[in-house]
TrEMBL record:
Residues 223-492 form the YjeF C-terminal domain. Residues 10-215 form the YjeF N-terminal domain. It catalyses: (6S)-NADHX + ADP = AMP + phosphate + NADH + H(+); (6R)-NADHX = (6S)-NADHX; (6R)-NADPHX = (6S)-NADPHX; (6S)-NADPHX + ADP = AMP + phosphate + NADPH + H(+). (6S)-NADPHX binds at residues 55-59, 126-132, 155, 258, 312, 365, 432. This is Bifunctional NAD(P)H-hydrate repair enzyme. Signal peptide: none annotated.
Amino acid sequence: MKSLYNVAEIRSIEHTMAAALPAGTLMQRAGEAATSAAREMLAGRKVLVLAGPGNNGGDALEVAATLAGANTDLDADVTVLHLPGAVAPSPETAQALARARASKAHFVDTLPLGRDWGLIVDGLFGIGLARPLAGDMRALVETINALGRPVLALDVPSGLDADTGAVIGPDGVAIHATRTITFIADKPGLHTYEGRDYAGQVQVAPLGIDPGQRPPAGARLNEPALFARHLAPRRHNSHKGSFGDVAVVGGAKGMAGAPLLAARGALFCGAGRVFVAAIDPVAAVDFAQPEIMMRDAQEFDSGDGTLVIGPGMGDSVTAMRVLFKALEGTAPLVLDADALNLLAASPDLQGRLAQRAAPAILTPHPLEAARLLGVTSGVVQGDRLAAARELASRLNAVVVLKGSGSVIANATGAAVINPTGNAGLATAGSGDVLAGICGSLLAQGWQAWEAALGAVWVHGAAADRLVAQGSGPIGLTAGELPVAARAVFNALAR
């Protein structure tokens, strides 16, 4: 299980382990792990170590002391920019500073110019930073980012919130790391929102702490193990009725493409039969995928099928009537796009959704989530896990908060961050395909929680597959995703 621990949880673990281990053990282990990572990353002899005033700076000083030690076999030229604080350092940090000063490392008071650094080690601030970087510190971080050299961040890139993935401050700055080695356990902020851009490759160094010594985590990273019980090759003795029906309700005038994309997502991920129930019917057949059956939304009866409501649906009276009927029914629902906007405008519809016994999955992007919560998208993005959990609790549903590091949450407070996907998904129609995949898995008998986890993972992995094959991320289109998702899904099932 790939657990994610917030700062409060990490502090609790640190406190427990510090009481059980000799003083300075965790810092020494962090230094050793970071030094090993630094050796792997070195692109030249010259190493710049940025050591801040706290224990994160102590970790960096341990790296400097080891890289520049008398007995090292590494021909490294280590420069330390040490930024002491206004108060005395912890005993562990003071010991690390003494070790670094006794080594061959060169200590400087200002950033040397004109050096071609083979590696920069960021130990300015760790998980405890709560204020935006300002003044000389901000200028230093901006200068480091402008150098374009390999950067190893210790625990978390300085300036990034380890819990939320937001750069601290409304106009804040943070270190752009090539790799982040994070200590004790993984952190949610390294995998969602701005964290994925700033953290680079994430490596976890548990520092000798057995997972059994840690309490349960508040969040997890998504992985196939979380939905593996539904993954199996199909029986020969099966038929289309074995895999359920999906009806995509949407397609107002001028928006016929959205439900077709959702329908193709459902079809290519294994639903037995797929319909488009259009608000404004314009075609009798999808010539690209004639397997998809076309219906009029006002006359369509979904029977025992799963409904995906919202892609291109608009906000007409007909759209509202169709949504109301769906909420009054017992079919499993996936609510996306315009269905979410209609929900946001109607406390009555929200109440009906919250009271339903049948499963529901909501797939909002940040602005749609903000409308539902009555806040701004900035508030949602400022703490994506909290927003997804709040929305799931209010509406008694599984919520997929889309974006970099999509967050999946349920009404019990469980939260999972998805690691698959790339910038190619930032394109029109991508969310429609995701909604269709969610509906497909629901129709095949998956529980809502696992359907959301599986759909988001497969959707992101499909985009990763396309990029690996040379299609994107720039110019990747939503229409390419269903076929790639099929390949990913079948590979998982095998």
